[in-house]
Design brief:
Keywords: Endoplasmic reticulum, Glycoprotein, GPI-anchor biosynthesis, Membrane, Transferase, Transmembrane, Transmembrane helix
Shape: globular
Structural class: alpha/beta
Number of domains: 3
Helix content: 55-70%
Largest sheet: 8 strands, mixed
Mean pLDDT: 84
Organism: Anopheles coluzzii (African malaria mosquito)
Pathway: Glycolipid biosynthesis; glycosylphosphatidylinositol-anchor biosynthesis
Protein name: GPI ethanolamine phosphate transferase 2
GO molecular function: CP2 mannose-ethanolamine phosphotransferase activity
Length: 933
């Protein structure tokens, strides 16, 4: 049986994607949080031989307001000039401020889940954040509803999606994900708040304000709009407090106001990562019956604390401790009862995990001592020392148990992890071996023998059966289960058959190829190997941009030096030739000098644009050029930077476009500038701009016209039966121009320069390679890998990182007035991955340009499609399989969820994008190409 190498490459990549999916399914399981509901019948009736009275656990407040200010950072609350009234309450002892630690991912939906249930959400909840499925876990909201305590809600519609039948009255933001809404949604919440303060049928009111988060996404935490928003929130707090104070004086009630943030905000704006400003949020208890504390509590501690205050059962899934300083309003017997109740729950959960080991631990000894002192205090309420010691022991034991439960909360599915990891390693090995094959051999002969093949499949099936034994023990294996095992066995057998035949047909060893390779090729493979190995370090993953900056800068310098060497050899040869014209030698020298000056200037441009956006982890908080340009007082410089970027982009488009396409591109660029001016980001130097909707409509029309300029002639020639390779490439070039203009529209104004810089860098690299490459094989190798590096480099140039917080949500709403999943997702993908997408399209453009040259008399020897697919496989599968192996080994590492997990999500999404690229290569590229460079 014969199999073409390009078919093997595509099959291997698809299997790698499948194996990566299996790995992710096992690495990101849903949290072990049963949907069991708690009830008050489970309350402890006594401790030792001392019984509790029926009034020890009852509501401690008459009604409460839970005010969630989205993306409220700890330092925002401490700004006295913005939170003047709140800081006055804190100074007068009428409120207490505590620190809460938030577990990643720091996005809204999982944070609401943590606050209401006390459970640790799954990391994949970061993806479900857009959909916000109905909450199945037990929450204190569910418990309040069971006790006929009415709850009203106003704010982020994530709550109403998660709790569809919970609220007595509700008024949600119709479009909470529309990040350009800074004020309208919050004003609506405040309007309903004032109406609800006049009603008396609710027990708990939840408010979720979104304006601060939206400002952070668009302009960052140091925006000039932030102080005004904080003052607006301070006025809301004052309104609630004054109304509650009237209730206390008139009705002698005990109302309570709780103010907190669902997550923080990083210094560069956005959230989703694990930096300190994102994971430390405040919680303010507005009450004169609370105690100050410098301790850092957990966000999951809110659920049991609110349950105790409202007098309802603590949610079954809760593993949080209690924020005990906030419970100062409780009498001593009530306090000990509440602490014992929650600690006993945690003890029961821990015993299910570690079985008999708990009885031999120091925590058990401390818990038993606390119960004895608790019993002693119930007999002698005047024993203050026993009370204080009991509180200390209960709180310390519960906190230790909480940490233990957190560490065991997420349970990996080792079966899927191992199957996916091994399959991925097979794919990586096949990709490397394909690269070592004879470049002219486009067909691999597969001749598996019958009995060894059957034995191999049976062995694979038995191994998979053995691995899945634990799963089978919980349920009777079905025919579908066995069919899946057989299918996986077939996949493994196919991979093994391909791998073994590639080993037999390998023409040269890796070492032999490296010895005969040029300096450029050696550096290419060194860089690829170094990047792969660097993924084994969490620090290198956090600062991955440094790796790409070094590799790209170095390869550009090496290419420049190589061409200068070629020029010097040419000049030397002409100088030695007696018949050479002296003026020709001078022209060559002048051309060399111009080339050197241009190359130095080009490298300086890269050094400059690198400073536009700080990224990574160590220096991300430092101000950069983009921060300086984004300030209101520097709007003129930002406008000039964007104008230069758009002009440079149009200049680069001229190299691949005709006159009409260039004019339309120039018009589109002016419309991009006008749109940004209409939104107030840049200025038109004294003129005013308005009605951005019309300019965007004209912009879209321009893009359609650019597309049809290439499409209609091609369709005409197809109908008339004419073919033209050059004209066919025009449509593809126009598609690149459309993507480039779209990227310029979605980028921040100061990042527009990056689009033109990428086009220029691609042309610079391709021209250098065409002049210095030894043969077609070397040319394809250098172009594919350097363009892959360029895509990664520009990905980080625009401020992206391996943290989820660096995703610029504002780019998804350009030209939109509401949330649309398809368009927002498309815009976000194009903006975030514009570097890799554009660099790949430019690579295809250069390959097409090579094939359009007049090389009719040259022999066709190179399979371009096969070579590109093989190189793409190596670049994706080798580091990908290595990284998931590292993540498997270090799955219990302290950085597993803060560093490795976000990187896995990015890599998985990248593999899907590369799959589209693989399909384009397979469909568009010719099988053969000429031998000339």
């Amino acid at each position: 049986m014969n199999a073409r190498q390009d078919h093997i490459a595509v099959y291997t990549f698809v299997v790698f994607l499948f194996s990566f999916s299996l790995f992710c399914y096992g690495f990101f399981p849903l949290s072990f949080s049963p949907s069991t509901k708690a009830n008050l019948d489970e309350l402890p009736q006594g401790v030792g031989n001392a019984s509790f009275s029926g009034v020890d656990y009852k509501p401690k407040i008459s009604r409460a307001v839970l005010m969630v200010i989205d993306a409220l950072r700890m330092d925002f609350v401490l700004q006295e000039e913005n939170f003047q009234f709140l800081n006055q309450l804190l100074g007068d002892g009428k409120a207490c401020l505590y620190r809460l630690q938030v577990h990643p991912p720091t996005v809204t939906m999982p944070r609401i889940k943590a606050m209401t249930s006390g459970a640790i959400p799954s990391f994949l909840d970061v993806i479900l954040n857009l959909g916000s499925p109905e909450m199945k876990l037990d929450t204190f909201l569910y418990q309040m509803k069971q006790r006929q305590q009415k709850t009203v809600f106003y704010g982020d519609n994530t709550w109403t999606n998660m709790f569809p039948e919970t609220f007595h009255r509700q008024g949600e933001n119709s479009d909470s994900l529309y990040v350009n809404d800074f004020y309208k949604g919050d004003r609506n919440i405040t309007k309903f708040l004032k109406l609800e303060l006049e009603m008396y049928d609710w027990k708990l009111m939840i408010l979720h304000y979104l304006g601060l988060d939206h400002i952070g996404h668009v302009e960052g935490p140091f925006s000039g709009k932030v102080p005004g928003k904080l003052k607006e929130m301070d006025k809301v707090i004052k309104t609630i407090y004054q109304t509650m104070d009237k209730w206390k004086q008139k009705y002698y009630t005990k109302p309570l106001l709780v103010i907190t943030g669902d997550h923080g905000m990083r210094d560069s704006g956005g959230h989703g990562g694990s930096s300190h400003p994102e994971t430390i949020v405040p919680v303010v208890i507005v009450s004169d019956q609370c105690a100050k504390s410098e301790e850092t509590f957990l966000q999951i501690d809110l659920a049991p604390t609110m349950s105790i205050l409202m007098g309802v059962a603590i949610p079954y899934a809760s593993i949080g401790s209690v924020i005990d300083p906030a419970l100062k309003m409780l009498h001593r017997r009530e306090m000990l009862h509440a602490l014992y109740y929650n600690t006993q729950r945690l003890v029961t959960k821990v015993e299910l995990i570690i079985n008999n080991k708990f009885t031999k631990s120091e925590w058990q000894n401390s818990f038993e001592e606390a119960k004895q002192l608790h019993q002693k205090f119930m007999k002698d309420a005047a024993d203050i020392s026993a009370y204080k010691r009991t509180v200390l022991l209960y709180t310390s034991v519960s906190k230790k148990l909480t940490q233990l439960l957190i560490s065991s909360y997420i349970r990996y599915d080792i079966l899927f992890i191992v199957i996916g990891m091994v399959m991925a390693l097979f794919c990586a090995a096949i990709a490397v071996l394909q690269l070592l094959q004879d470049t002219n051999a486009s067909v691999l002969t597969l001749q598996p023998k019958l009995f060894p093949s059957i034995n191999c499949m049976l062995l694979s099936f038995l191994l998979l059966k053995l691995l899945s034994f634990e799963k089978q023990s919980s349920a009777e294996p079905s025919n579908c289960f066995h069919a899946v095992l057989v299918s996986l066995s077939v996949v493994y057998f196919t991979l093994w058959a391909i791998l073994s035949h590639l080993l037999k047909s390998m023409q040269a060893s890796l070492w032999t190829l490296l010895k005969s390779a040029s300096l450029l090729s050696l550096f290419i493979w060194f860089g690829t190997s170094f990047h792969c190995v660097s993924l084994g370090s969490s620090s290198f993953v956090e600062e991955e941009h440094q790796t790409w900056y070094y590799l790209t800068s170095t390869i550009m310098i090496l290419l420049t030096l190589k061409e200068v060497s070629v020029m010097n050899n040419t000049i030397g040869a002409l100088s030695r030739h007696t018949k050479s014209d002296a003026s020709l030698v001078e022209v060559c020298k002048e051309e060399r000098n111009i080339f050197c000056a241009g190359s130095i200037a080009f490298l300086c441009i890269h050094v400059t644009v690198r400073r536009f956006n700080q990224t990574g982890d160590k220096w991300q908080h430092l101000p950069d050029v983009g921060d300086w340009l984004s300030k209101e007082e520097h709007k003129m410089w930002l406008s000039l930077t964007m104008l230069v970027g758009l002009c440079y982009l149009v200049y680069q488009i001229c190299y691949m476009a005709g006159l009409l396409t260039t004019v339309l591109s120039l018009t589109a660029s002016l419309l991009i500038y006008y749109y940004r001016a209409a939104s107030g980001t840049v200025s038109i130097f004294g003129l005013s701009a308005s009605n951005s909707a019309i300019c965007l409509t004209i912009f879209w029309i321009n893009l359609v016209e650019i597309f049809f300029i290439g499409f209609l002639p091609m369709m005409y020639r197809a109908i008339m039966g004419r073919t033209s390779q050059k004209r066919t490439g025009e449509l593809f070039n126009n598609c690149i121009i459309i993507v480039a203009l779209l990227s310029a529209l979605l980028h921040k104004p100061h990042n527009v320069l990056l689009v033109g810089a990428l086009l220029a860098t691609s042309r610079f690299v391709a021209e250098r390679i065409d002049r210095i490459a030894d043969d077609k094989h070397c040319s394809i190798l250098l172009k594919v890998i350097t363009h892959y590096w360029l895509g990664k480099t520009f990905y980080f140039y625009q401020g992206n990182s391996n943290s989820l917080a660096s995703i610029d949500l504002n780019a998804g709403y350009v030209g939109l007035n509401n949330f649309d999943m398809l368009r927002v997702g498309l815009f976000l993908t194009l903006h975030t991955f514009s570097g890799p997408i554009l660099s790949f399209l430019l690579l295809l453009h250069h390959i097409f340009s090579d094939n359009e040259r007049d090389v009719k008399h040259l022999p066709v020897v190179t399979n371009v499609r096969e070579r590109m697919l093989t190189l793409t496989n190596v670049l994706i599968t080798v580091p990908g399989s290595f990284f998931i192996t590292v993540a498997t080994v270090l799955r219990d590492h302290i950085f597993a969820w803060t560093v490795f997990s976000p990187k896995i999500i990015y890599e998985y999404f990248t593999v899907w994008l590369v799959l589209i690229q693989v399909m384009l290569v397979w469909l568009l590229l010719p099988k053969k190409s000429c031998a000339s460079v």
